[in-house]
Amino acid sequence: MKKIGFIGLGTMGAPMASNLLKQGYEVTVYNRTASKSEPLVREGASQAATPAEAAAGQDAVITMVSNDDSIREVFYGEDGILKTLAQGTTVIDSSTISPGLVKELAAEVHKLGANFLDAPVTGSKPAAIDGTLVFMVGGEASVVEAASGLFDTLGKKVIHMGPSGSGSVAKLAHNTMVGINNLALAEGFAIAAKSGIPADSFLELVQLGSAGSKAADLKGRKIIDHDFSNQFSLALMLKDLKLASSLTDATGVPSPMLNLAKSLFQAGQTQGFGDEDLSAVVKCYEAWIGQTIGGKPLQ
Ligand SMILES: NC(=O)c1ccc[n+]([C@@H]2O[C@H](COP(=O)([O-])OP(=O)(O)OC[C@H]3O[C@@H](n4cnc5c(N)ncnc54)[C@H](OP(=O)(O)O)[C@@H]3O)[C@@H](O)[C@H]2O)c1
């Protein structure tokens, strides 16, 4: 697989496409806001005017867009990829979308004689830049194997979860835990801060103690510094929790912590923090305790 169409150059997609270029792949990029393609074109990518153009004649097409609606537009739109997808092309969707839509897309793509993998990722913007993402993949094992060179360029590990839709389900279960872990961190910080424990000391304890987590490692310092620059937006976290909640409704899995987490991230979104990093949910706790985690009174 050498010729790649890459659709969606946001926080994750742009560094992923850049890593493919660095490894010598021939990459054709498409982004809805065309100006975001320019840095990739400077790195050697070709620019497509539509998803259909980006998908035509490629060995593989990778999609990395926001949500179910975006994916529907990229696949089924007037200039969607289903218009030009060639027999034998492998479509790899790395967006986090619903398992039901994944199965529908896989069926559409298979009808054209092409292959489909749902391959969502974990590891945020830094892992996309470093090429150390972890892929959780649904689809046929032989197709996963044939795409292994691509996955190795973009990530450090591929875990085959099962048939189409399994990658998506694994991602939603995983991100349920990401949301809960981030809330656990915010709540711990709030309890400690309200009684005057210095935030730095508390974070040091958490990272050494049994409460340690990737959330603490990735977001603890951001919370103390009030640096809510976006790595994974609060709005996208809420989107994933809503998808997970629909899944547990459909499968009948009791999920009280998921639904509490969904409500708390919804509160963050309602407060206007949706475009900030998901760690900005701590600002809800700061409002409740009347001070910042760093100890300053709220303005
Ligand atoms: N950020 C993370 O840490 C992370 C980690 C794992 C998984 N994910 C998942 O990966 C996906 C992308 O995340 P991200 O952080 O890169 O998001 P992002 O920065 O918000 O980028 C979203 C991308 O989707 C495009 N898009 C949105 N609607 C579209 C439409 N209707 N048609 C065509 N393109 C459309 C956007 O185009 P424009 O530029 O025109 O808006 C942009 O390129 C999401 O499903 C997210 O849940 C993110």
Question: What do these coordinates show?
Answer:
Residues 165-285 form the 3-hydroxyisobutyrate dehydrogenase-like NAD-binding domain. InterPro entries: 3-OH-isobutyrate_DH-rel_CS, 6-PGluconate_DH-like_C_sf, 6PGD_dom2, 6PGDH_NADP-bd, HIBADH-like_NADP-bd, HIBADH-related, NAD(P)-bd_dom_sf. The active site is at residue 171. It is an enzyme of class 1 (oxidoreductase). GO terms for molecular function: 3-hydroxyisobutyrate dehydrogenase activity; NAD binding; NADP binding. The longest helix is centred in the middle third of the chain and has 29 residues, at 166-194. Helix content is 51%, strand content 13%. It folds into 2 domains: 3-163, NAD(P)-binding Rossmann-like Domain (Rossmann fold); 169-289, N-(1-d-carboxylethyl)-l-norvaline Dehydrogenase, domain 2 (Orthogonal Bundle), CATH 1.10.1040.10. The chain has a 6-stranded parallel beta sheet, with helices on both faces. Strands 7-8-9 form a 3-stranded mixed beta sheet. The protein is of the alpha/beta class and 299 residues long. It has helices at 13-22, 38-42, 51-55, 68-76, 99-111, 125-130, 141-146, 148-154, 166-194, 199-208, 214-225, 234-251, 256-270, 282-289; strands spanning 3-7, 26-30, 46-47, 60-63, 90-93, 115-118, 121-122, 133-138, 155-162. Helix 9 packs across helix 12 (234-251) and helix 9 packs parallel to helix 14 (282-289). Bound molecules: NADP nicotinamide-adenine-dinucleotide phosphate (NAP). The site of NADP nicotinamide-adenine-dinucleotide phosphate has 26 residues, from helix 4 and helix 12.
